[in-house]
Specification:
heterodimer; A: 351 residues; alpha+beta; Rossmann fold; OB fold (Dihydrolipoamide Acetyltransferase, E2P); 2 domains; six-stranded mixed sheet; 20 strands; 24% helix; B: mainly alpha; 12 helices; globular; binds adenosine-5'-diphosphate; binds magnesium ion
């Protein structure tokens, strides 16, 4: 049970013209499962390596349970990292691999054997202790790597893209196993991925990182409903963006005045941007909404199974709307339509 | 299909024939000679007396057994020390930016250099009239160059060992650098995050990872140093004498009867090396089966 604070963390490499990690701040609560999400090369692994101590930051601090880690060598931090390609020691069998951390601590052989057994049961591989790594499938290797990481009760568990080398069906299984084990052991965990869906399914909170900069750090739900900026909204499939100005507790736009109920109104700049998810927009041929209703023209209709997607032009602005296909009104291209943006579903952002 | 195959076999036959004749013919003829069969001087007998002479006769037994001891000592010591030096050298410089330069330097300078040149170099630097001895007496570390320890032409084969270390460490070094490079640092970083300190990372991670390659290279180096002639001829003493030198002296003997002893000794050397190599393959095979 450990809480981790990352403060103004910066790391540059001589080969790069921007910092690989640029002024990242994060507060991770004890027992949380946090995903680092971002495209390849955005600095996720570099942050993990600074937490383990394998990289030294240029500036900033990493604080675990109120104590700075920077002066503590990697092997004494109690921060364990699981690498993307499993890295089981090829010359050791599974038991020896899993027991490695305890052996390094000089723990008694009988106790190690007992703990190894427990760990292999935890990852649901009780009977493979005597096999060599190359006799295991990718999924099994990853589970052994997880058992090896957990055996010494790490204060922080770091998982670097643990699922990206696995087949699709194994990936779901492994993801569920990680969540189950994490909830059981309550170990503070950081999980790195470039897959947005994976992050949403797994994490309590997601840190979205682009080009070494933290874009947003919040719950998966908030990324859909209350993103911090356009980049974050777009990464999670946001498509509707409307330039807006503050106007006496409302927002004025060039499609008209929008009533706003978001709690962040006071934090908004004079100029800001409204976003709304396609599935939260409502359409009607008759103007039967009493609020935030705007007249537009249907540009296209695309049926995609359970949902139907509409593109609507409102005053030169294109909006996208996605409705459940069941029980739809008959709406066709070039129809005039009223577009409703429910005031509790719209969200305004500064950039 | 069958025709193709036959064509390949037929076209390979002439060169294979030549190789077989030279190799097995040579060995066979040498073996005959070692059994005392030398038509050139009118000897047609076949027996093992040359082997007996070399190993057990009053005249040669002492020379042979001390020579064998020296051979084993020199080969083991030089192989082991060269491997150790190369390992620590490679670990020390692999992360520095000039690692590649050093590799290339050794590659282009040390490896192609004949052992003979290295042996002369060793005399130049380490003998009692050599560079180090003069230097040490100049700066007053020792009274005169003659007080310098006997490192060349000494009865423990130190000069020979030194020459082999110089040459073979470079060979080990090149192999180790490429192994370490291909392994990367991930295993060590992982071990470190699992709590392994510097020594433990060396002992439980690096060593087992490089061991297979190091071991194979050791066999090559050992076999070579066990049978090589020129370095011990230049840097060794009359007694004890390494076996290849002893064999060569039999051949230099104007008495052609000594040829049989020379051949017998050469074959003994070859058999010892072969036993060691077979033992090594048996060891690795046993390990593979166990895995
Ligand atoms: N040891 C290193 N030396 C130089 N550049 C590095 C090093 N490690 C990472 N980088 C660079 O830093 C950037 C971020 O890398 P990384 O943290 O591995 O990204 P991610 O894990 O998000 O894919 C990349 O551009 C990468 O090339
Ligand atoms: Mg990475």
């Amino acid at each position: 049970m450990s809480k981790l604070n990352i403060k103004n963390l910066i790391k540059s490499f001589p080969s790069m013209d921007r910092p690989a990690v640029n002024n990242v701040n994060l507060d991770i609560e004890s027992g949380e499962l946090v995903a680092f999400l971002g495209p390849s090369g955005c600095g996720k692994t570099t942050i993990l390596k600074m937490i383990t101590g394998l990289f030294q930051p240029d500036s900033g601090d990493i604080i675990l349970d109120e104590q700075s880690l920077l002066k503590i060598p990697t092997e004494k931090r109690g921060v364990v990292m699981v690498f993307q390609n499993y890295l089981l020691f090829p010359y050791m069998n599974v038991n020896e691999n899993v027991g490695f951390a305890l052996k390094m601590k000089g723990v008694d052989k009988n106790i190690i054997d007992q703990k190894v057994k427990e760990m292999l049961e935890l990852v649901k591989l009780p009977d493979i202790g005597l096999r060599k790594p190359k006799q295991l499938s990718g999924g099994q290797q990853q589970r052994v790597a997880l058992a090896r990481a957990l055996i010494s009760n790490p204060r922080i568990l770091l998982l670097d893209e643990p699922l990206s080398n696995l087949d699709a069906h194994l990936r779901d299984e492994m993801r569920d196993l990680i969540v189950t084990i994490q909830q059981k052991l309550k170990v503070t965990t950081i999980f790195v991925t470039h897959d947005q869906e994976e992050a949403v399914l797994l994490a309590d909170k997601i840190a979205l990182i682009f080009d070494g900069e933290l874009q947003n750090f919040t719950s998966p739900k908030n990324y859909y409903e209350k993103p911090k900026n356009i980049k974050a909204a777009k990464f999670f499939g946001g498509v509707n963006f409307i330039n807006a100005k503050k106007d006496n507790h409302n927002l004025s736009t060039n499609i008209g005045t929008v009533h706003y109920k978001g709690e962040n109104y006071t934090d908004l700049n004079e100029d800001n941007i409204i976003t709304i998810r396609p599935e939260n927009i409502k359409l009607s041929k008759n103007n039967d909404f009493n609020d935030n209703s705007f007249k537009g023209l249907i540009k296209s209709v695309i049926f995609s199974g359970t949902h139907t997607r509409y593109k609507i032009i409102v005053n030169d602005l294109e909006l996208e709307c996605s409705l459940q296909s069941v029980g739809l009104q008959d709406i066709k291209t070039d129809d005039t339509i009223y577009v409703h943006l429910p005031s509790d579903k719209i969200w305004a952002m500064n950039e | 299909m069958g025709g193709e195959r036959l064509k390949i076999i037929l076209s390979l036959t002439p060169p294979l024939l030549i190789i077989f004749t030279l190799f097995f013919g040579g060995i066979f003829y040498g073996f005959l000679q070692s059994l005392g069969y030398q038509p050139a001087i009118g000897k047609y007998e076949i027996n093992f007396s040359a082997y007996y002479n070399v190993m057990f006769s009053e005249r040669y037994a002492k020379l042979f057994w001390t020579g064998l001891g020296l051979n084993l000592w020199v080969s083991f010591a030089s192989t082991f020390l060269a491997a150790v030096f190369a390992l620590f050298g490679a670990l020390a410089i692999r992360k520095t930016f000039f690692a590649k330069t050093i590799c290339n330097f050794i590659y282009s300078l040390n490896l192609p250099m004949p052992h003979l040149v290295v042996a002369v170099g060793i005399i130049f630097v380490f003998s009692q009239s050599g560079l180090l001895a003069r230097l040490a007496s100049q700066i007053g570390l020792i009274g005169s160059p003659g007080d310098f320890p006997v490192l060349v032409k000494d009865k423990y084969g130190l000069g020979i060992i030194l020459a082999y270390i110089w040459k073979e460490a470079a060979f080990f070094f090149i192999i180790l650098m490429s192994v370490l490079q291909s392994l990367g640092e991930n295993f060590e970083e992982l071990a470190q995050s699992l709590g392994a300190n510097r020594w433990q990372r060396f002992r439980y991670v690096i060593l087992p990872l490089v061991m297979p390659n190091l071991f194979s290279a050791s066999i090559i180096v050992f076999a070579f140093s066990f049978g090589a002639y020129e370095v011990p001829a230049l840097l060794g003493v009359i007694y004890p004498q390494m076996l290849p030198v002893m064999a060569f002296e039999f051949f230099l003997n104007p008495d052609l009867n000594a040829r049989s002893e020379g051949m017998a000794l050469s074959i003994i050397i070859a058999i010892i090396v072969m036993i060691l190599v077979v033992f090594y393959f048996w060891l690795t095979q046993a390990k593979i089966r166990k895995d």
